[in-house]
Amino acid sequence: MRMNKKNIYMVQVDHLYGNEEKSLYLPYAVGLIAAFALADDYINSNYTLKGFVFWRQNIHEAVAALDSPFIIGFSCYVWNTEYNKAFAKRLKEVYPGCTVVFGGHNVPENTTMLEQFDYIDILVHGEGEVPFKALLAALAGNGDFSGITNISFRNLTGEIIKTPSAPPQALDLPSPYLEGYFDSIISKNDFSFCAVIETTRGCPHHCSYCDWGSLGSKIRQFPLEKVRKEIEWISEHKIEYFWCADSSFGILERDHTIVEWLIELKMKTGYPKVFKVNYAENRERDVYEICRRLNEVDMNKGATLSLQSLNPVVLKNINRKSISMELFAEMMALYNEANIAMYAELILGLPGETYESFCRGIATLLESGQHNALNLHALVLLPNSHMANPEYMKNFGIKTVRTEFFQFHCEKAENDIPEFYDLVVATDTMATSMWVRATMFFIYIQTFHQLGLLQFFAIYLFHEKNVKYDAFYSKLLDWSEKNKDTLCGNIYTDFSKKLSGIPEGKGSRSYMNSLYGNIVWPLEEGAFLKILPQFEQFYIEIESFLSIFKIENDIYKDLLNYQMGMMKLPGKCKTVISLNHDFHNYFKRIYVHSYGKLEDLKNIVRAKDKKCAKAWKEYATENVWYGRNDSRNIFSDINVEL
What residues does 8 pair with on adjacent strands? Predict the structure, then answer.
């Protein structure tokens, strides 16, 4: 054994999720890089992997705990880049001779990070396994980096050198799970760990807002046997939640085999409990079949349909195609009939989008049956995306603001290093004021429709009074703005102020309430949670708004009774609703695109909550955080007595 090996540390920090029970992801990316490098005999004979820094601990304490670090690799993304900078700065103060390497998606293709931060020595551009291994070999030898591709560094005279790019390699990489690199992390810590695996790498699409396709469009496959063994490792170590980081799961025939392995292990061991993945586009039938099988064993996290926009102009601008609304409606009916969560994703702020087209797009999704789950992402300018090109930004009048990033559903720790991102707040088709208004429109859609507070009223009015969904919720926004002393008015005032402050360097897209623990919520969930403790008061106040639509009195009373009765509350383990109209079957038919007239029929709706949450924090976690995409805060285990 060679003495005096050089010590390697790898840094990939994550936020702590949850309240009392803390969970976070194992540092898969840097684990993979370390496993690949140390599989080489020369590297292994010269270096020792001393450990991982994997959660946002106090930086001074973390640096003090290091043992003579020779080289440290940092994985950078939007949620940890500022922490990494602060860590590297402190590291250089204590260990000035330590080599600091930054890589990951937040490292741009240019050399600006080296120009701005003298505590960073080397940048890795793109995939990190091959360059990091080559750096270790060079540092153990003559120290010449000039032959290493995909890096930037300072030479002995201080000149910054950027080496040529090379295409990605084949994916015959050792697994950090199977090689035991995470065993001590799990055994020595009390966290509840989540895992990440890849079965493929690469993306066939080239969306302008994303940097995934720019890293290599050809999909490369990890060996199937390795994937199987990693899933078995996850099961054996009782990992409840794991995320498959593929760009297009379901695009390959072998993905069905992987799903069968998951189901087999879940049935045998109980783990993993939840499987989350990015599903393939234009593979609707395959994705449905995968979700149907996962749903049968309560393992499905929901099927994702990433539409981004329904505006053809926008789709052309971002180099993207979308499925037809006819096919979307057909698939939506299938998912609803099978009681499978399926959610659509949109992005606000894309070039070419207007306030009107954004609202109309959401309304079109609701008209197609998407009543349960709709997710909105704010458009963030990623440093390696085509959209971040100055010429592209100029062409579409893209304006950004650097604002604080909050990782939702995570603890807001005191004295933590704030993270930032470049948020798009205006384009040449959507002014900042309209961006604020559009965000508020979505918050209202999520709070009052997707999370259920007015969903049944909106659906009834659409089908019986021809009130379009965008008109209904736009009127609710206007009513809230005028009635400031109501719960809705208070939400409108507070949240509009938060959003309007963002372009000025203040405000935020986050909400906190100690009633639900010390974690950060997105505004659309925050609005719902703000109303919940005053549930009955909300329905008293909202009668003034609903009266605008002149619903017949007997139907209004029944519909209000049904709407309130179907909503779960903390400690509300069952509901009994006496009605004069068969509202339950009326809505049930609508969800599967089989409209039938509302029947005058006396009936009793009985429902129960199998996972009845007694406390506020438990309710918010189970029904709003975990259950947002499958309407878990609305009763679903229902029996109707005629």
Answer: 49, 71
CB 442 within 8 A of CB 376: yes
Residue 356's SS3 state is helix
As a whole number of angstroms, the distance between CA 441 and CA 60 comes to: 44
Q: For residue 293, what pLDDT is reported?
A: 92
Are 32 and 129 spatial neighbours (Cβ–Cβ below 8 Å)? yes
HSE, side-chain direction, 13 A CA sphere, residue 39? 18
Element holding 344 (H helix, E strand):
strand 342-348
Instruction: Round to whole Å and give the CA distance between 77 and 537.
Output: 43
The topology (CATH level 3) of 6-162 is Rossmann fold (3.40.50)
Give the per-residue pLDDT at 496: 96
Q: How far is Cα 204 from Cα 217, in angstroms, rounded to an integer? A: 5
Q: Is 249 helix (H, G, I), strand (E, B) or coil?
A: strand
pLDDT at 217: 59
* Tokens 């379901």, residue located: 250
Structural tokens at position 44: 């292994």
Q: Residue ranges per domain, the chain?
A: 6-162, 168-299
Judged on CB neighbours under 10 Å (0-12, 13-18, 19+), 258 is: buried
Phi, psi values for residue 426, rounded to 5°: -165, 150
CA distance 383 to 102: 14
Q: What 3-state DSSP class applies to 585?
A: helix
- pLDDT, tens digit (0-9, with 9 covering 90-100), for 178-229: 999 999 999 988 889 999 999 999 888 888 998 875 555 578 999 999 999 9
Residue 299: closest CA among 241, 233, 363, 381: 241
Residue 380: HSE in the Cβ half-sphere, 13 Å Cα cutoff: 19
The per-residue pLDDT of the chain, averaged, comes to 92
Residue 384's φ and ψ, nearest 5 degrees, are -105, 15
* Token pair in block for residue 209: 């807002």
The percent of residues above 90 in pLDDT, for the chain, comes to 75
Please give the residue that has the higher pLDDT: either 83 or 156: 83
- Assess whether pLDDT exceeds 50 at residue 1: no
Per residue in 137-169, is it b (16+ CB within 10 Å) or e — as a string? bebbeeeebeebebbbbbeeeeeeeebeeeebe
Phi, psi dihedrals of residue 43, rounded to the nearest 5°:
-65, -45
CATH of the domain spanning 168-299, picked from 3.30.750.210, 3.40.50.10320, 3.20.20.190, 3.90.76.10: 3.30.750.210
Phi-psi label, residue 592: left if phi above 0, alpha if psi -120 to 50, beta otherwise? alpha
Residue ranges of the alpha helices (H) in 4-102?
A: 28-38, 41-46, 59-64, 81-94
